[in-house]
Design a protein that fits this description.
The protein is an alpha+beta fold and 419 residues long. It is built from 8 helices and 4 strands; from the N terminus they run H-H-H-E-E-H-H-H-E-E-H-H. A 4-stranded antiparallel β-sheet has the order 1-2-3-4, with no helix packed on it.
Length: 419
Amino acid sequence: MRIAVLVALGAFAGAPASALAQGLTLADAQRRAVEAAPQLAAASASMRAAQEMARAAGRRPDPVLRLQVQNLPVTGPDRFELTTDFMTMQSAGLTQEFTRGEKLERRTERYEREADKAGAERDAARANVQAASALAWIERFYAERIADQVAGEREEARREVDAAQASYRGGRGTQSDLLAARALIVGLEDRLAQARSRIRVASEGLARWIGPAAYEPLAGNVNWRELPHHMAGEDIRLEDHPEIQAASKEVGVAEAQLRVAQAERTPDWSWEVMYNHRGPAYSDMVTFGVSVPLPWDRGNKQDRVIAARRALVDQAEARREQVVREHAAEVRGMIVEWKEGVARLDRYEREWLPLLHERTQAALAAYAGAKGSLAEVLAARRGELEVRVQELELESETARAWAKLSFLVPVDLPARSTP
């Protein structure tokens, strides 16, 4: 019967994780999240609005049509007569403001910079969606791997209980061994319940991004050992970071608004022509003229607006510097976290797990030679299980750091996988 226990324990050590069925890959989850993200639709609409405004801002104001009756008598024998009094006129005129070309160009440029900023914000939103959906997929992926690990060991533990019961009935085992094996099953059942609850929570988190597809089986893996090319070097280039790009575009918007204010400092003239029709006994007349605004208080009006716009440029530049510093520190911290995770996982695979496996084998050998107890074997097995779960948790954290780095900028996803 001791041989039966050893066979069960040997199977317990080598139980593989269940294979993933073909289903939802990481790239599929990201693609679905991007397709369904309302923030991307909002950012695209904002960019289209700015582009339309840029086209409209480059046009001159519409002409103004004026129709009027002048000097209409309201008393006397000619009251309300349009043609009897020589001063009564029926007038039709047009007024047109001639906006300077430089001012139109500056207004157009302002909205073009707004469109550029909206485009950068759309890229930032796309990168955020790709990263967030990747993190949600990774959370569920490793929750399932941990559950598989615990479930496999629970099945082997049940075989241990059967073997311990048979050994106890035959008078070769102890009650202590039987109780220890049963306690191991209870602990594994509780741990498996926690792992399955974590899978459900992770699925709900993924459903936020992709809807019902979050409950499909997962497929594929995470290549967390390799960073993309834009993160591979020691000197990290952050110019393409979408949030830094958006902050830079904000500076461009502020500068464009400053140039508009500077152009507005010089007023535009308006020209007017009017045809005045009188009674048949009198001559018709034409009136034409020009209107010139008089900026008599530029120091407290136009110059104040220019100063305000210049201050907003300074604000945008300071904010861009703040964003650059924040993301530089954040990225370097994530790289340290990822590198440390990779190094620790290498130690797990190279040193720690082989050492614990040898410890378990030694306990098995002692138990087989009647020099050790089943409780010692179970303790060694529990220790090995703890480290294997710790390894999966660490791999999950490392994969999360990898995802944050890999999707700092939006990437082109591979084609949709087919079952």
